[in-house]
Amino acid sequence: MHIHENDRIHPGKTYCYVGESLWNSKTQKYDKPIHLVGQLSNDPMPIFMPNNYMSKLLRESLEENPSLTEKEILTIKTVIDNYGNSVFDRIIEAKEPVGIKTAKITSIGPSLVFSSITKEYGLDSLLIKAFGVEKANKILAISWFLTCEGDALSNSSAWLDYHESPIKDTISSQEISDLLGKMSYESQMMFFKLWLKNFTKSGEKILYDLTSISYDGECIELASWGHNKDGDKSKQINYCLLCVRSTGMPIFAWELEGSISDTKTLKTSLEFLNKLGFKPDCLMMDRAFDTAENLDYMFHHNYKFLQILKNNSNWVKNVIDYGRAYRESPDNVYDIGKNSFFISTTECRWISQNIVQKNGNIKYDLKSPFFTVYYVLWIIFKLFGYYSH
Predict the structure, then answer these.
(1) Could you tell me the pLDDT band of residue 262, with boundaries at 50, 70 and 90?
(2) Model-level pTM?
(3) For 381-386, which contacts have Cβ atoms below 8 Å and span 24 or more sequence positions?
(4) C-alpha 67: how far from chain center
(5) Other CB atoms closer than 10 Å to residue 223's CB: what's the count?
(6) At what angle do helices 109-121 and 133-149 cross, to 10 degrees?
(7) For the chain, domain boundaries
(8) Nearest CA to 258 among 299, 212, 216?
């Protein structure tokens, strides 16, 4: 056993944990459960202050025939080896004065905010349908902790002990590992399918983007070499995210292999969403997803979308040149502050050819939907000239 001190949960407080490493033959990995035993004082020379759990163990160890388990004995030995025998001088008394009760302070601020959001979107009922009551409450509790603190899940026990949450007790690091391991793929897909039904309103614009996270370990199969946007020389995992433009509410997030480029994730993600019964009413994307293959796929499958185009392809250059006369018209100049915007709109037609094989015969399925290209020339007027964009 060993002592782990954490000063990142609350500023000015250092929590003390007793941890151990146990080999798990099923997962072929080490489980690393930790238990909160106290905290350090704010004195110039910090002093260990045992909590109720540790005080109880120390009191029992002083009895003639202590009924302690081997693990509890090792816990006491680890604490004494690190902080000395003086820990016995700071044991919290077990007996309370007659007529006086000990009060526990519980912060309800996060609960007031998150409970209303949970109720508004029916998150609790959706999680219960997908994961069951016990797992659903634990998922909500650690989600509240992550939203407030953004810290590692192993540090959630101290936060949950002080804040009101959907569960009454704290969750140990081992329990969190068990919870994450039991969140099956089928349950996750069931939750997403139920959750996405809340966002089928007509005219709702959905933002789609991709991010990557660097990873130096060997345990995640999806981690692979790819174009790292942060410039790290590490493997990476791609994450696609969809959210509602009007509210910023995330509606879908999923991991993808790190070697897949941004342009090749769109078709995979849309096919995945289609299996879940969700088709965005209007999809919005940046220029990273602008390829002829992506445009062809979205036109062919009747998607409504707003796409920023790269201006280095020949057909886009032709559209820009075609609209030059319209942009030069005074009616198409919009002044906003010190900026003037020269705008042209050009209606185009996308010719899509899809080969269909039926009864041994090859047919060409031609589609030619209309779409509009908006081009903005932005002139920033300065005291000594201007810059065009």
Answers:
(1) low
(2) 0.61
(3) 381/338, 381/339, 381/340
(4) 45
(5) 22
(6) 120
(7) 2-90, 109-183, 309-389
(8) 212
